[in-house]
């Protein structure tokens, strides 16, 4: 089985070229200006081919909360958003804190066959922040990293031991950086909009304090840490410092944090309620600068589906989170259209760097011999993000019902077309 | 009619004309409360439901009296702040009571923005009787009415609002309204009780009690919202009284005819010394009295717009 896709602008993190992509079985056979013979020929002239997107941070709610999302609907949303590899967080019900659940998740994703799914295991049993999980066993089962995302590991001793322990296995810890005491009962950023709305604020320092703690623990243990969903200017300064010090730290930012600021919350719209919260305009700009400069290594969606009933309530009672898999492309392309990022930056942030962080040597590049995980984007396609487009079980996105530009026209995983618009 | 909205959710989104219109109406309704038979048929046949998801005595009573004086049928519904104690959502609760042909909901709720949320999801008129730390518009209106009565004007007055600003929906509603009416507002309180960002208030932030009180026409002391604050905001009531409470000595810095206000209930000896709470300059009971007239006006106006 071979497929030839013609007329593409082929983008890697360090190159841009016009050409055709020849895929044989699950591998990229050639990138060429010629038109070699193939069983299937697809002409997508003028569209952009990038390596299949790798989303390091999603919530698929499976097992346990499948009414919000399950691995099948999550996979469908992923490929419709151009994402071929997903790392679901461990806050399932029960928590993914043992190899049985890890194996279940991988097996279900394989049966579905749309994406590569690599679970993030919990750092602590039940995500209670007390006892370490059997990380080695979970890695053997197919987990790739560990996080209690959604809940911070408040006990510094536990975090230290987790960082030390994981070094044995060459994996790393993903930090949900939030000082729970300082965040208190906050529901939005502690800034001007909190003053105006009377909604309780979460200070930027709740994030920054934990980031510096985890950076220092990574330094002390000579271990590897990845900071999830960075949202403040101060956090980026701390991470920049850590990188300059040679500490093994990477980080990610979510599209909503470089697309919206706290002003979106003036009307108490629960679709903008997320954790970390939308920050100030200068934080948003710092994140865009961080994406450009390389302080931020990856874009990850923090795809957090919730049922309508969990958002159609009083603001304080509403769940935190926003779906993100199908808005990753349009929100990030906006930065390209605004000349804040290039296409090569896009590839670096959405596949090349994530592949490096996760040590996926066969992903993250469009190159002969690499795995044929490919996303083909129509950057100018304008559409309504509605029920016809949305593949997630949930619609908790402020972008739902709005007009977006830029979409995955074709998604290929392991050489197979898994999404076609 | 200058006011055309079906709801009264907050002062933040009202115009100066709308605020003055409600005050004018309230002044007219005051007269009814002085009659021997304090009742008019204005809202006869209307059903007003006091939906109180948070404990309240004076505001609920004030609204209930206001409704009854206008001949409306007033019903009280009390529940914990979470309407979900039996698993029902807030909007389902509201929709159910709306189905019984309720005309107006007077809502108090522990969460900011929740009254707006209800207003957007019911056909009934909605009056905010206090939502979280966001707004308490009828309290601001009764405060303004009281100030206007005593000072014969609003524009150009110097008002100090002192105390727990962060947790005070009374402060927020007053600040939004007073800014629109040309009142000079100074704020003061312990830093733990001031929002991190005070710029949206557009008010002068005093650095001590003397500066806060100086040259004031009105001093509005706020109640310490013990039920809303975390335990680390204050070391003690004693220390609060010493540095942030109002007593006779501190009052000397204000204008001689300065009036003292408090939304109640007072923590005597903490925000206000007893001698000031009960002195001639204290207009606290006038505020309570004006509350009924303001709420009659609010109910009347909203009833006309649904």
Structure characterization notes:
The complex is a heterodimer of chains A (421) and B (306). By secondary structure, chain A is α/β, with parallel strands linked by helices. Helices cover 31% and strands 23% of the residues of chain A. Chain A has helices at 71-80, 99-112, 135-141, 156-167, 180-183, 192-197, 204-221, 233-244, 255-259, 281-293, 308-311, 328-337, 343-358, and strands spanning 2-12, 15-24, 27-32, 40-43, 48-51, 53-58, 83-88, 116-117, 120-121, 145-146, 173-175, 188-189, 201-202, 225-227, 249-253, 298-299, 374-384, 403-413, 416-420. In chain A, the strands form 5 sheets. In chain A, strands 1, 2, 3, 4, 5, 17, 18 and 19 form an 8-stranded mixed beta sheet that branches. Chain A has a 4-stranded parallel beta sheet with strand order 11-14-15-16. Chain A is globular, with a radius of gyration of 20 Å. The mean pLDDT of chain A is 97. Chain B has 306 residues and is of the alpha/beta class. Helices cover 38% and strands 15% of the residues of chain B. A 5-stranded parallel beta sheet of chain B has the order 1-5-4-2-3. Chain B has a 5-stranded parallel beta sheet with strand order 8-7-6-9-10. Chain B is globular. The mean pLDDT of chain B is 94.
């Amino acid at each position: 089985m071979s497929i030839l896709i013609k007329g593409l602008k082929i983008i890697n993190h360090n190159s841009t070229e016009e050409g055709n992509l020849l895929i044989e079985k699950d591998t990229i056979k050639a990138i060429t200006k010629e038109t070699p013979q193939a069983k299937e020929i697809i002409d997508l002239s003028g569209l952009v081919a990038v390596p299949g997107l790798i989303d390091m941070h999603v919530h698929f709610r499976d097992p346990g909360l499948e009414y919000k999302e399950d691995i099948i609907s999550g996979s469908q949303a992923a490929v419709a958003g151009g994402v071929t590899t997903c790392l679901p967080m461990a806050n399932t019900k029960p928590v993914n804190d043992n190899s049985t659940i890890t194996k279940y998740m991988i097996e279900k994703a394989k049966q579905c066959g749309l994406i590569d799914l690599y679970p993030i295991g919990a750092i602590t049993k039940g995500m209670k922040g007390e006892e370490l999980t059997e990380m080695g066993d979970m890695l053997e089962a197919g987990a790739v990293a560990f996080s209690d995302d959604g809940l911070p590991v408040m006990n510094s001793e536990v975090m230290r031991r987790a960082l030390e322990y994981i070094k044995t296995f060459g994996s790393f810890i993903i930090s949900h950086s939030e000082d729970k005491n300082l965040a208190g009962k906050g529901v939005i950023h502690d800034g001007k909009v909190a003053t105006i709305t009377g909604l309780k604020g979460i200070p930027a320092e709740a994030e920054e304090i934990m980031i510096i703690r985890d950076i220092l623990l990574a330094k002390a243990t000579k271990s590897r840490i990845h900071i999830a969903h960075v949202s403040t200017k101060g956090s980026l300064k701390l991470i920049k410092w850590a990188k300059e010090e040679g500490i093994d730290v990477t980080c990610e930012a979510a599209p909503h944090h470089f697309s919206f600021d706290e002003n979106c919350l003036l009307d108490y719209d629960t679709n903008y309620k997320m954790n970390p919260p939308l920050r100030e305009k200068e934080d948003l700009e710092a994140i865009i600068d961080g994406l450009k400069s390389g302080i931020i290594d990856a874009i990850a969606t923090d795809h957090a589906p919730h049922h309508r009933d969990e958002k159609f309530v009083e603001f304080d009672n509403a769940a935190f989170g926003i779906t993100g898999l199908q808005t990753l492309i349009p929100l990030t392309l906006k930065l390209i259209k605004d000349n804040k990022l290039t296409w090569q930056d896009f590839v670096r942030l959405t596949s090349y760097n994530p592949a490096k962080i996760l040590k996926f040597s066969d992903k993250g590049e469009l190159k002969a011999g690499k795995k044929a995980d490919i996303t083909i984007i129509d950057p100018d396609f304008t559409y309504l993000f509605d029920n016809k487009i949305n593949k997630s079980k949930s619609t908790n996105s402020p972008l739902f019902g709005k007009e977006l530009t830029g979409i995955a026209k074709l998604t290929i995983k392991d050489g197979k077309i898994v999404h076609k618009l | 009619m200058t006011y055309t909205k079906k709801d009264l959710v907050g002062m933040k989104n009202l115009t100066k004309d709308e605020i003055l219109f409600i005050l004018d109406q309230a002044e007219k309704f005051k007269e009814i409360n002085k009659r021997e038979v304090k009742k008019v048929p204005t809202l006869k046949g209307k059903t007003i439901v006091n939906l109180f998801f948070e404990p309240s005595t004076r505001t609920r009573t004030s609204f209930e009296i206001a409704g009854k004086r206008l001949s409306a049928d007033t019903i009280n519904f009390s529940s914990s702040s979470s309407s979900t104690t039996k698993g029902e959502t807030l909007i389902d609760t509201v929709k159910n009571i709306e189905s019984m042909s309720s005309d107006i909901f007077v809502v108090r709720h522990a969460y900011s923005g929740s009254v707006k949320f209800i207003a957007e999801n019911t056909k009934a008129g909605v009056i905010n009787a206090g939502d979280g730390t966001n707004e308490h518009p009828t309290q601001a209106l009764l405060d303004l009415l009281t100030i206007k009565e005593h000072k014969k004007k609003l524009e150009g007055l110097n008002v100090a609002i002192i105390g727990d600003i962060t947790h005070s929906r009374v402060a927020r509603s007053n600040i939004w309204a007073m800014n629109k009416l040309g009142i000079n507002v100074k704020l003061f309180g312990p830093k733990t009780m001031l929002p991190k960002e005070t710029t949206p208030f557009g008010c002068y932030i005093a650095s001590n009690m003397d500066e806060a009180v100086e040259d004031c026409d009105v001093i509005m002391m706020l109640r310490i919202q013990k039920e809303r604050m975390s335990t680390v905001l204050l070391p003690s009531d004693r220390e609060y009284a010493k540095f942030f409470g109002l007593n006779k000595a501190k009052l000397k810095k204000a204008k001689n005819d300065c009036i003292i206000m408090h939304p109640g209930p007072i923590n005597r000896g903490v925000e206000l010394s007893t001698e000031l709470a009960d002195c001639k300059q204290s207009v606290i009971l006038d505020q309570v009295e004006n509350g009924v007239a303001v709420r009659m006006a609010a109910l009347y106006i909203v009833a006309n717009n649904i």
